[in-house]
Amino acid sequence: MKQTAVEWLVEQFFSTIRELSVEEIIEQAKEMEKQQQGYSEEEFLEFSEWVSHNDWVHLPSKGYWVNEEQEELEEKFTTKQLFEQFKNK
């Protein structure tokens, strides 16, 4: 079972090994919490806008995205892969 941010935070505070500062522990817990909450409405809208402005087309029957401007449609991406490209833009 995946450990929640709160469970991880409690474990860090009460463990005998104190390798991280309190500030580092709190920052890591906040990052875990953010990841567990999923994507915000703003992130979703930014991704949608990026997809449409960059000519990406979803082919649901095939399960991937392609760029309309590619002549041979060589690069195919899952939604997760395309979102990673968006985050790294």
Oligomeric state as shown: single chain
Class by alpha and beta content: mainly alpha
- Overall form: elongated
Distance between the termini: 33 Å
Helix content: 40-55%
> How would you sum up the major sheet?
2 strands, antiparallel
Query: Counting H and I runs of at least 4 residues, what is the number of helices?
Result: 4
What do these coordinates show?
This protein is 53% helix and 9% strand. The protein is elongated. It contains four helices and two strands, in the order αααββα. By secondary structure, it is mainly α. The model has no long low-confidence stretch (mean pLDDT 78). It has a two-stranded antiparallel ribbon. β1 and β2 form a beta hairpin.
List the keywords.
89 residues; mainly alpha; 4 helices; 2 strands; 53% helix
Brief overview:
The chain has 89 residues and is mainly α. Helix content is 53%, strand content 9%.
Task: Summarize the topology.
Elements: H1 5-14, H2 22-36, H3 41-53, E1 56-59, E2 64-67, H4 79-87
Antiparallel strand pairs: 1-2
Helix pairs in contact: 1-2
